[in-house]
């Protein structure tokens, strides 16, 4: 089945809109390298667009009505937005969902140590990574340290021009004969992902008598001076190691974006922008940006948490229409685009794909009837009737789209959040943007697809 190249479908105005959208998208990525940073931006953008905090609405017992726009966050790491429609709430929501956590390397709770007069942070990686891709790169540290007095220290090191960066070292090729014979997954072991952070000892005059590790002592002194934190404070910290540097245009024709964390912020950002621009429709629009997808959607801020359901109940309550049965009906009658990135066909690794059912750069928004692998295991298999509706929505709005599976049948697979929302009995389909180098420190997308996603989300939210 031939799908058109999206670039050829855009007129001049749209081609300019592609550039404008992607410029803002890159800024969002630069300012949002962790789930907390993404939610912070989400709140700022939502408030600017007239969204009100649902928790304030609840506290002040303000009634909500059609046309009202509210948002709510969970622990600063996930968020839900609602734009109330004019129709019956029992007819359900139009939901856009995506995740804002990305593969990375986290600090351990007891991270700091010294070895041979070098100071390191010990780490535990988060999500599926090819560990060998994360060595010898400039890395940054983003995150928070929560102190016992209730204060939060925000930390970002490695992004400003004048900032230092960090590095996980690799063995020089000259001595790597044995290492080069190892299997890919053993070339760099998880326990060896240690971040090099210092090599200068504290002056002897400042060193306490019992202190033997002067380089570590100097690091602790710097942390105390700059952030007022002690070694014990690492126990209650969330510090994430990510590639240092900004999102960039990629290609001689600047047709692509190369950046960290596009899985799944490319879908999250376009969903959010579409939501914020949406007009009041018949059906209530909803945008869900969740954490922890990369480790199984677990925890209070992951999709499996009751946060979304509780927030929907609060919304109905503030609208004065809450009852258990109304909530159940609203959820069951909802439609969802569960967006996550797709593996873009890469001709260099052609044997991993089945060409008829692969996603391609510049062929538009990707729809996956099912994900999973080896017999569709673990996938949300979208309903044919629902796919027909989605096709009609996309075609009516001239949205470039394609359909795909994730690689060859017996090869791979991956999970998304679709199956969790489908538990309510609602219509859900997986969709998203095609990505090359998925889960690598720097991932690549086509600008034509980023724009197609935005167009698709606009059309989906507007459908009554
Ligand atoms: Mn993803
Ligand atoms: Mn992923």
Percent in helix: 25-40%
Please name the fourth-level CATH homologous superfamily of the largest domain: Zn peptidases
Number of distinct beta strands: 20
Shape: globular
Gyration radius over CA = 24 Å
Q: List all distinct small molecules, including ions and cofactors, that are bound in this structure.
A: manganese (II) ion
Task: Give, in spatial order, the strands making up the sheet with the most strands.
Answer: 1-2-3-13-4-14-18-16-17
Query: If helices are DSSP runs of H or I spanning 4 or more residues, what is the number of helices?
Result: 13
Please mark out the parts with pLDDT under 50 across 5 or more consecutive residues, or reply none.
Answer: none
Distance between the termini: 29 Å
Provide structural commentary:
- By secondary structure, the protein is α/β, with parallel strands linked by helices.
- The protein folds into 2 domains: 6-102 and 260-462, 3-Layer(aba) Sandwich (Aminopeptidase), CATH 3.40.630; 105-243, Aminopeptidase i, Domain 2 (Roll), CATH 2.30.250.
- The protein contains 13 helices and 20 strands.
- The protein has helices at 6-9, 12-31, 35-48, 54-59, 177-180, 184-187, 214-227, 262-277, 307-318, 324-332, 384-396, 418-421, 447-462, and strands spanning 52-53, 69-74, 78-83, 93-99, 104-115, 118-126, 139-146, 152-157, 194-198, 237-243, 248-250, 256-259, 284-290, 335-339, 342-343, 365-368, 401-403, 427-432, 434-436, 443-446.
- It has a 9-stranded mixed sheet with strand order 1-2-3-13-4-14-18-16-17, with helices on both faces. Strands 8-7-10-5-6-9 form a 6-stranded antiparallel sheet. A 5-stranded mixed sheet has the order 11-12-20-19-15.
- Strand 16, helix 11 (384-396) and strand 17 (401-403) form a beta-alpha-beta unit.
- Helix 2 (12-31) crosses helix 13 (447-462) and helix 8 (262-277) packs across helix 13.
- The two termini are 29 Å apart.
- The mean pLDDT is 96.
- The structure holds manganese (II) ion (2 copies).
């Amino acid at each position: 089945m031939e799908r058109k190249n999206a670039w050829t479908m855009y007129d001049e105005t749209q081609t300019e809109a592609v550039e404008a959208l992607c410029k803002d998208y890159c800024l969002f990525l630069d300012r949002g390298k962790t789930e907390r940073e993404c939610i912070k931006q989400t709140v700022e953008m939502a408030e600017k667009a007239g969204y009100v905090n649902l928790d304030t609405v609840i506290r002040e017992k303000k009634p909500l009505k059609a046309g009202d726009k509210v948002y709510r966050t969970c622990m600063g790491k996930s968020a839900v937005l609602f734009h109330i429609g004019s129709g019956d709430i029992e007819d359900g929501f139009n939901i856009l969902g995506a995740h804002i956590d990305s593969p990375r390397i986290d600090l351990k709770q007891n991270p700091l140590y010294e070895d041979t007069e070098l100071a390191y942070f010990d780490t535990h990686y988060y999500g599926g990574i090819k560990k060998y891709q994360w060595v010898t790169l400039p890395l940054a540290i983003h995150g928070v340290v929560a102190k016992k007095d209730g204060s939060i220290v925000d930390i970002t090191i490695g992004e400003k021009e004048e900032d230092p960066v960090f590095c996980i070292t690799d063995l020089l090729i000259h001595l790597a004969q044995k290492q080069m014979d190892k299997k890919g997954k053993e070339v760099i072991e998880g326990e060896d992902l240690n971040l090099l952070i210092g090599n200068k000892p504290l002056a002897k005059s400042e060193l306490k008598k019992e202190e033997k590790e002067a380089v570590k002592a100097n690091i602790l002194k710097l942390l105390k001076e700059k952030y007022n934190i002690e070694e014990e404070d690492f126990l209650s910290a969330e510090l994430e190691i990510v590639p240092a540097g900004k999102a960039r245009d990629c290609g001689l024709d600047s047709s692509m974006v190369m950046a960290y964390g596009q899985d799944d912020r490319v879908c999250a950002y376009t969903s959010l922008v579409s939501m914020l621009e949406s007009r009041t429709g018949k059906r209530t629009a909803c945008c869900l940006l969740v954490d922890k997808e990369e480790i199984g959607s677990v925890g209070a801020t992951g999709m499996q948490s009751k946060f979304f359901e509780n927030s929907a109940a609060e919304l109905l309550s503030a609208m004065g229409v809450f009852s258990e049965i109304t909530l159940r009906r609203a959820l069951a009658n909802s439609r969802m685009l569960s967006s996550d990135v797709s593996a873009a066909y890469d001709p260099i690794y052609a044997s991993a794909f089945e060409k008829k059912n692969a996603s391609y750069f510049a062929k538009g928004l990707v729809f996956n009837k099912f994900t999973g692998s080896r017999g569709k295991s673990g996938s949300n298999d979208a309903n044919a009737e629902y796919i027909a509706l989605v096709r009609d929505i996309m075609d009516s709005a001239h949205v470039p789209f394609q359909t795909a599976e994730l690689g060859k049948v017996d090869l791979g697979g991956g999970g998304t959040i679709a199956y969790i929302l489908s538990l309510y009995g609602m219509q859900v389909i997986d969709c998203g943007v095609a990505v090359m180098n998925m889960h690598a420190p720097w991932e690549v997308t086509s600008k034509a697809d980023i724009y197609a996603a935005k167009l698709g989300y606009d059309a989906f939210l507007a459908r009554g």
